[in-house]
Design a protein that fits this description.
heterotrimer; A mainly alpha (about 325); B alpha/beta (about 325); C mainly alpha (about 280); A: about 325 residues; mainly alpha; flat; C: about 280 residues; MetI-like fold; elongated
Chain lengths: ~325, ~325, ~280
Amino acid sequence: MLKYIVKRLLWIIPVLIGVTIIVFTILYFSPGDPAYLALGDNATPEAVEAYRVEMGINGTYWERLGRTLGGLLKGDLGLSYRSRTPVLDELLVRFKVTFDISAWSIVLGIILGIFFGIISALKQNTIWDSLSTGCALFGISMPMFWQGLMLILVFSVWLGWLPPSGYGSSWKQMVMPVIALGVNSSATIMRTTRSSMLEVMRQDYIRTAKAKGQTYWAVVIHHALRNAMIPIITVIGLQLGVLLAGSIVTEVIFSIAGVGKYLVDSLNARDYAAVQGCVLLIAFVSAILNLIVDIIYTFIDPRMKTMYETSKGGSAHSKKKGAQKTA
Amino acid sequence: MSDKILEVSDLQIRYVTDEETVRAVNGVSFTLERGESIGLVGETGAGKTTTALGIMGLVPDPPGEIVGGSIVFEGQNLLTLPEKQMREIRGGKISMIFQDPMTSLNPVMTVGAQIAEVVLLHNKITKAEARERAKKMLEQVGIPGSRCDDYPHQFSGGMKQRVMIAIALACSPELLIADEPTTALDVTIQAQVLELMRNLQKEYNTSLVLITHDLGVVAKICDKVAVVYAGEIIESGTLKDIYTDKRHPYTIGLFESLPDIENDAATLKVIQGSVPDPSNLPEGCKFNPRCPYATEACRSGDIKPVKISDTHMVRCNRFSDTEV
Amino acid sequence: MKKKHTMLSEIWRRFKKNKQAVVGLIVLILFVLVAIFAKQIAPYWYDDQDANRAMIAPCMQYPFGTDNLGRDVLSRLIYGSRYSLSIGFLAVGISVLTGGFLGVIAAYYPKLDNIIMRCMDLFMAIPQMLLAMCIVSALGSSLFNLMLAVGLSSTPKFARVVRASVLATREQEFVEAARAIGASNTRIILHHILPNSISALIVQATLAMAGAIISASALSFLGFGIQAPMPEWGAMLSAGRKYIRTQAYLTVIPGLAIMAVVYALNVVGDGLRDCLDPRLKK
């Protein structure tokens, strides 16, 4: 088991290298010269070259790529074109903000999603089911940015209860962003929970549990839910990725100084070093989160544990993907 | 002065969906004495499993409905019992073994926990004691007690079925219902599991309802036999009655279709036609479209059960003509 | 020929039972019609500016009001449907073609399987939206680039789905039978495997269209997509955001339009999934 974790952690390194190459290449072909953007159109060739050397963006494609990768292996993400400060520092400051909001959002999503998913499954085809599934459908159909704007409209503009922007000075500033992100996640989680529970409740071992004389709720929680959790955990893992992307838009709307907003601002300002750093950070965090999700699997499904111990990481992966299909 | 443990009378169960109504069980009646075993024999879809689920109170409620009859167990009509009392009986006094061991065990719980669960539900003992009991049950069914912390996927099909038997017998039930317990297993394993069941039955003096389509299995274990067709018992009696003095044309057909090792026949004898659609059953005797002895009288009206002897019943107009 | 007809009508019969899905389908058809006949339906052209009638709240003459440049919001919404629907359709088309191609190749030629799937894993390590943003940044803001970006960022997911579906079908016996009578690989892929994988693909594609429309409007909202004065719904939302305190309708209405199309797509996709369920297939 430990061997598996170490193998996964080591595997992150080539992934990050690959991601760097991809992003670097895409951005390399972007229009706009950072040197002239920073120094102005009338900059002298010497000043331009000096800037390029300082930023590490002189030379051919291969030289620059090599330098970038070398820096990556040392933990150096380069300097931001705009502020000329290390990208890594800028990111770490902002990461805490994004992390806080995302963490609360996923917790909200899980609680709401699983609760309503179970209710919906148990009361299939009743009014509770129709209401919940209907709401969930609305939830996933609403663009997250519009959701955020509507929340601002209602709670800031009309009711004046909550501040429309900013972060850090009051807990009230977190309410709307967390709701916007959390509700969206909860809709997907709810749908998966519902279909998974429906599938599990039909299984033979549920009938066996009832035949033992077990009570209804014990059957639901102790037998059904534990088995239903497997695809649900998969979806929660996927939602973490969606959340990271969703926080981009949310941070822009609520003017929150997190990684997402930094990314957008950097792209607009053509600060490609910063963009690269953001993407790498996000990819890294995603990979770690996926690993944590896979480890959680082993506590829920003993069959996974056996698979991991025989170090067939690939087949565990495909079992997860199979579970995804029910989502 | 009989010690009747189970009396099923005129049980009727159907499944109602938007499209159709399936009449699964149409007036099944049989009795069972303490310590006796009865084999419910018939083809797939005859209504045997539904009858068993009816006794356990596990007929899935939409779409299934019990629309008539009674099931009297130790003097109480199970169909009128409140759910709480039914739960006490399930697993404790009446247990069931299901057909497919591969899917009947919860994959995320250890086998020991699953056995201990049923013990804890019906006995006021500690968790540690329940675990000990679970280990003992495993030993009884021929599995080392040390494996009680293993998961179902770590066992073969035959061993999984043994675990199911352990769960079913853990609380020493009065009545055990076994629904095709060996159908999903290899022939060699079948013999072992049947042997196990017979020994445990004798040891605990458990009454047994054995559901199967295998006449050979019935011969090995059962005292009485009831032949089920289209939701009805069309013939019932002791083992001897059915095996040596079968009267109903369907029963005769069943036995004749068994390959005979001494017979050099080139083709197997089959019963003509096929099992009727339970949502669209024929009028009169339900077997009449396929019956070589059928007459006009067989095509309409209710065929009443006739007692050929104290133990032997048959539902057929022509029973005297089928005597060998 | 007769068998195919009854299978299609069987699917339609099952689909019809799901009333929500049927409503969704009608809504979709309406939107498509609006998009096609935009010129005929819209009372004004989408960039018909007139400072004198700026910022008028919804009323009889302007059912959805006018924006800060005096343009009729209803007309912009109608023309905007063209963008959203075409992006949804074409982006997913791109995903299906590229992802599908890669998926089939990976499933059928094990030597290439590993490389292709590792590459897909790499791309999937970057969240879709980020990838799309970078692509648009690199290529420049335009309708086509937006479609390309959204489409390409979904390719890995489709590659994975198609590969899984093809692998599953390939193991089935009728493929072996086909091979046993000497059918070539291409023929097997086109005539046997694809038709069986198609139902899963259609469901995924419908749901992916919903996602593509949301992604595209999100990208436009952030300024990475369509340039003004194109009436893309996300861009309209972005422009209206400034005036949320006073002219809330500028943000509420385009959002409702997006939601309506996406909801319809989701409902139809769900309905298709339920009625194409292979367990119900004869």
